[in-house]
Amino acid sequence: MFAFKLVNVGVAKRTFSSSATVANGVKVAVLGAAGGIGQPLSLLLKHNKSISHLSLYDIVNTPGVAADISHINTASKVTGYVRENDGLKLALTDSDVIVIPAGVPRKPGMTRDDLFNTNAGIVKELAVAAAEFAPKAIMTVISNPVNSTVPIISEVYKKYNIYDPRRILGITTLDVVRASRFVSELKGTDPSNEKVTVVGGHSGVTIIPLLSQTGHTFTDEELKTLTHRIQFGGDEVVKAKAGTGSATLSMAYAASCFVDSLLRAMVKGEKGIIEPSYVKSNLFNSDNIEYFASNVELSAEGVGKVHPLGKLSAYEKDLLAAALPELKKNIAKGAEFVANSKD
Ligand SMILES: NC(=O)C1=CN([C@@H]2O[C@H](COP(=O)(O)OP(=O)(O)OC[C@H]3O[C@@H](n4cnc5c(N)ncnc54)[C@H](O)[C@@H]3O)[C@@H](O)[C@H]2O)C=CC1
Ligand SMILES: O=C([O-])CC(=O)C(=O)O
After folding, report:
1. N or C: which end of the chain has fewer CB within 10 A?
2. Which positions fall inside the Lactate/malate dehydrogenase C-terminal domain (predicted)?
3. Whose CA is closest to 116, among 162, 82, 92, 151?
């Protein structure tokens, strides 16, 4: 198959200010663009006015996805690539933001960590290519297990001497989207007005919703049920999809919100844009935990400021205590995978 390129008319020229803030549109590369998340995410990103070039890469089917999306009458250029003919290099070169939803999803009965054996290699391959062809891009990852894929990317970037922790973010927005929806269902409020901070990581007990900070009061029973539903919301979808995959549409929505926030900070220089994300963090240095999701103020470089957790209830302190050992294991597994790789 040939690398495939489609060019729309009316594309804004990319220019950059001296402060590296993107002044006139950005190139966003989606790696895994033909998948269950990749396709709706690419569709949503085609509507983002800050994007001048949407670059779609997958090992299969990208030409069709790119041709389809390129007919939408928004200004951005859409290009599609497969592996052959330097597709990955072309997809990545000059990218400002990379989003990775490549990799296998769960089937019922699996944990996210069960995806490690397949997805670690995929994410590593894409990180190596990004290090070579787009070392300055802000790298964002959806592929599970996020708790381990972020450390994998970091370790690859260290090997290539391009590591800047501000430029690598694990997307945990779906946990916030779900938590806000579930709280609003219980409280009869408008979900778009709910803002639940979710911290920790992105799997089971490492997902810690800070419900004490929502301004609502919950009975002990409500707190337990709600927390469990937020921690295992992904399993609800995996079970309902009965072997055909995991959350794709809600994830695409969540990732497009996240990318939009990032672009508002990068392109428009907006201050105070906060998205909880899984990043290199000093919050739990004393426990030797290098990565942690918390509220992150986004900037032109990706991570601006990592916010502390704020006041936790006794219940949340217990959740945190349960999360930290699991998180530590997941992080070590990702880092060891790269350390033990021959190439
Ligand atoms: N961070 C989060 O909150 C969430 C993460 N996920 C994760 O996202 C990942 C993708 O999920 P789906 O889109 O449902 O899976 P999918 O199987 O529908 O799509 C994955 C795509 O990745 C592509 N791919 C495989 N190897 C590749 C490679 N080496 N380079 C480029 N592309 C490659 C496949 O061809 C496929 O099109 C899974 O790991 C899933 O667990 C899913 C939901 C939420
Ligand atoms: O549950 C999964 O495997 C996919 C995912 O990360 C989520 O939906 O939160």
Report:
1. C
2. 172-338
3. 151
Q: Is 282 exposed, middle or buried (0-12, 13-18, 19+ CB in 10 A)?
A: exposed
Q: What is the pTM of this model?
A: 0.94
Atom 3, ligand 2: residue with shortest CA distance:
106
Could you give the CA distance from residue 228 to residue 258 in angstroms, rounded to a whole number? 24
Q: Where do the H-state alpha helices sit in 15-74? A: 38-45, 62-70
Give yes or no for residue 171 CB within 6 A of ligand 2. no
- The letter for the amino acid at 323 is A
Domains 26-171 and 173-331 share a fold: no
The fold of 26-171 is Rossmann fold (3.40.50)
Per CATH, the number for 173-331 is 3.90.110.10
The answer to whether the CB of 298 falls within 8 A of the CB of 278 is no
Q: Of residues 1 and 123, which shows the higher confidence score?
A: 123
The average pLDDT across 304-311 equals 98
Residue 47 falls in the annotated catalytic set: no
180 vs 178: CA distance, rounded Å: 5
C-alpha 178: how far from its chain's center? 15
| Pocket of ligand 2 contains residue 234 by CB under 6 Å | yes
Structure tokens at 45: 């990103």
> What's at 276, amino acid-wise?
P
Give the span between the Cα atoms of 238 and 111, in whole angstroms: 10
142 is in an annotated binding site: yes
Q: Does the model's ipTM exceed the 0.90 cut?
A: yes
Residue with tokens 């790696």: 31
Query: Is the beta carbon of 254 within 6 A of some atom in ligand 2?
Result: no
Residues 233-277 pLDDT 10s: 999 999 999 999 999 999 999 999 999 999 999 998 999 999 999
Position 108 scores a pLDDT of 97
